[in-house]
Amino acid sequence: MKFEVPKTKKLYEQIAAIIEQKITNGDISPGDKLDSVEQLAKNFEVGRSAIREALTALQARGIIEIRQGEGTYIRKVTAQDISLNIPTYASFSQQDLQQIFEVRKILELGLIENAAKRRTARHLEQLKEALIKMNDALIDPETSSNADMRFHAIIAEAADNPLLVSMLQSVSKPIAQQIQHTRSILSTTDHAALYNLHEEHTAIYSALVNADDVQAKQAMAKHLETVESLLFDK
């Protein structure tokens, strides 16, 4: 099978991006063995040095594993790999993603209480802007997902605990793409669900405006239950 390589980024970056996309699409699965350097060079119609550079880049990001004498494999990432530097594009299993989401729930439910007590006028203004952007782009999956993640990031910042902020960022990265994918499906199949998400974000915002930590935690818990149900069909 031949691959078309667009002429924009450096050649090895283009190749790495294509391989990465095939993993994301499910064309290549965790544990699968990639073709040899020679075969990949033929498939991409490029030199072997470009393939080696691409594989080195993918290995550095934790996406593939190069085994001496055996070949190159798509890395199987487990929940035990979670740290403050989780690879953004690593291939997590569905079970791993659910476990990561559980960690996110614990962090967010803790952060929201402090955020209600410590939020400033600047935080409230930023939250309002993210809320408006989410509403305006309700059926635009990419824009609304980015605004969604930004909304939660601002809450974490308002809690004023840099370590917890860093931890939340780490566990949010692996599921960000899945959130966008889910919003993409809902944008064509279930506008009511998207509107409900917006209402839940609004309830969280209102509780923060009122500095009501109890109500804020209840609103966040309800929202996270909804998101978990949408992401994992619970």
UniProtKB/TrEMBL annotation:
InterPro entries: GntR_C, TF_FadR/GntR_C, Tscrpt_reg_HTH_GntR, WH-like_DNA-bd_sf, WH_DNA-bd_sf. This is Transcriptional regulator. SMART domains: FCD, HTH_GNTR. The keyword Transcription regulation applies. GO terms for molecular function: DNA binding; DNA-binding transcription factor activity. Residues 9-77 form the HTH gntR-type domain. Pfam families: FCD, GntR. It comes from Solibacillus silvestris (strain StLB046).
